[in-house]
C-alpha cells in the first residue's frame, strides 16, 4: 500500500475503531461475568484497573515516544532508524513491565493499604492484583508492539489480534469463572488465568507481525541493539508524555479512592459508568489516535500545512461523533445499567451521571485531539505542564473538595472532571492555533538541513 494510503485518516482510524468497539463490547461482557461473582468483585476490578493504568504509563513513556518517532522517521524515509527505534522501544518497555509484575505479585497487600481498600474486599483484591498484575509484562509487550506496528501505518494487524485476544479471554472466563468443562469454579482467580493466557498468545502473534513490519526483518540478535542518540530522542519525546499520562491516571486513581470513601455502591456505579462511557468515546478516540500517527508522519515528511489542518478536521469529525453517541447513551443508558446490577441505589446513582456525560465526552474529544496533535510534532513538554497543573488543582483537588468534603458525592466529582477536560482542551487548542512550536521546529529542521548540505563533501 502506498504511503499516502497507509496514513490516510480513515485508513488508520477504522481498524482502531473496530478494535476499540469489540474491546468495549467484550469488556462489557467481562464486567457482566464478574458482576455474577459479586458487586465487591466489580469494585475490586474497577479500582485495580485504575492502578494498572497508572503503572502502564511507566512503559508507555517509552512505547509512546518510540511510536511518534517511528512515524516521523518513516515520513523522512529514514527506515533503518525507524526499525532501530521500534526495537529499543520494545525491549525497554518489556524490561519495565517485568519490574512492575514483580512488585504487583509480591506487594498487593501493601498497595491495598495505600488505596484505602475496604477490609471486606481484601481477599478478592489480593487474588486479582497479585495474579493479573503479575502478568503486566505481557501487557508491556502488547502495548509496545501495537504502538510500533500502528505507527508504520498498519492498524489492521493490531485490530485482528485484539479481537482474537478479547474473544479468547471471554471464552476462558466462562470456563474458569463458572467451572465448565470439568474445571472447578475459580471465580475472580479464573479471570486472572484467562487474562494472562489470552495476553500471552496475543503477544506472540504480535511479535511475529513486528518481525516483518519494516524493510529488513527483525531477528532475535537485533533485540540487543541499543543506540544512545536515538534512545535519547525516544526519551525526550516520551518522558513528558509519560508524566502526562501518569498524571491523568494517578488523578483518576485518586478520584477512585475518593469514590471508595463514599462507599462500595458509588464505586460500583462509577465502574459501570466507565463501561458505558467507553461506547461514547471509542470512535472519537480512534480518530484522535489516528491523527497522531498521521500528523507525525506528515510532519516528518515536511508537509506541515497538511498536518496543521488535518488536526482540525479530525477534531470536528470527532466532536460530531461523540456528541451523537453521548445523546444516544443518555436516551438508553438507564436500560443498560440494569444489565449490570439490580441494586436500586446503584441504578439511581448511574442515572444521575448520564446527563453529565453529554458535556464530558465533547470536552474529552477536544482535549485528546489537540493533545495528540501537539505530541505528534514533539511539543510534549507544554502538554505535560498544562495537564499536571489542571489535573492536580481542578480534577483531583476539586473532586476531593466538592465530592468528599462538601458532600456533593459523585455529582461534584463529575463536575470537576468536566471542568478539567475543558480547561486543558482550551489551552492546547490555543497552542495549536498559535503554531509557535510547530513553526520553530520547521525552522530548526531547515537550519539543520542547510548545515548538513554545507558540511557535505563536494564531488569532484
Question: Which features characterize this protein?
Answer:
transmembrane, 460 residues, mainly alpha, 0% strand
> Could you say how many structural domains there are in total?
1
Class by helix and strand content? mainly alpha
Shape: globular
Please tell me how large the radius of gyration is.
22 Å
Please give the number of β-strands.
0
Q: Report low-confidence residues grouped into runs of 5 or more.
A: none
Biggest pleated sheet:
none
Task: State the separation between the terminal residues, measured CA to CA.
Answer: 39 Å
Counted by DSSP, the helix tally is 16
What is the arithmetic mean of pLDDT? 86
Please bin the fraction of helical residues: over 70%
Helices and strands, in order, run as HHHHHHHHHHHHHHHH
Strand content: under 5%
Q: How does this structure look, described?
A:
It is found in: Cell membrane. The chain crosses the membrane at residues 7-29, 49-71, 83-105, 125-145, 157-177, 197-214, 234-261, 281-302, 314-333, 382-402. Helices cover 85% and strands 0% of the residues. It has 460 residues and is mostly helical. The chain has one domain. The chain is globular and about 65 Å long. The two termini are 39 Å apart.
